[in-house]
Amino acid sequence: MGLPNVDERAGHRAGPGSVGVPATGGEGHTRAAIVRLLLEEGPITATAIGGALGLAPAGVRRHLDALIESGQARAGRSAPWQQKGRGRPAKQYQLTAAGRGMLGHAYDDLAGAAIRQLREIGGEEAVTEFARKRARTLVDGIEPLPGHGAEPAAESTTGDDSARAGTAAKAEEIATALSDAGFAASTRRVGAGVQICQHHCPVAHVAEEFPELCEAELAAFREVLGTHVQRLATIANGDCACTTHVPLTVLPTAATDRPKHASPSTVAQPATDAPNDSGRSAE
Length: 283
Description:
Blueprint: E1 12-13, H1 27-41, E2 44-45, H2 46-53, H3 57-69, E3 73-77, E4 91-95, H4 97-101, H5 108-138, H6 158-180, E5 185-190, E6 193-198, H7 204-209, H8 212-225, E7 230-233, E8 242-247, E9 276-277
Antiparallel strand pairs: 1-5, 2-4, 3-4, 3-9, 5-6, 6-8, 7-8
């Protein structure tokens, strides 16, 4: 799964393939192309959808209105930091949980039954170990970065700039690997960090029952990036995407010294900042 490696809205796009051509073959193919963009690039504006697919704005809005009416999509205003120029913020569209559910979750029942049996035979430790091994396969082949805490942080050095660039590049590698595994992932810069956004989760229904899968995935990210990372949202918990914040700036006080109860809002904005509204599309 994937789109072109261009994202004019927020950072970088990861993953091979392209749907950046005019949709042909009737209304069904056009609707499917729009749904795929909402899945992999959402939240996204109607203008951006039209530009990617070579469609007129009126045609795009007609399909978006139909998706909203059916409960498969929703619209919300762009956050202030996403707005370009003056005027009323443009609407951005994304799939709802019902919309993602229409895409299907292959082998969910079988996978759930298998893990439940594994727990009966080997206990919780067996499930945890299975989740760890699965998570490692997602980032297999990505060379880990050295830990940020290996040396004291300097105030401002070329080395620090290089380390930040290296961390951002490594996050991009993770996003590419996730896209190859069907997670439709991308990265974007937010404040003093970068976010890894997984717009789809092929095991979301199983992860609802077995949170060990999400926990092991986060641990695998930490091992590769060599720094503390923070999960801000997950599809398994009902959010529109799985969003992981990766800090690029390390203060003299190590990030791990921050109180565990500190709010995520102190380090990054969540994947969707503006409240969504369910009204029909209008920009």
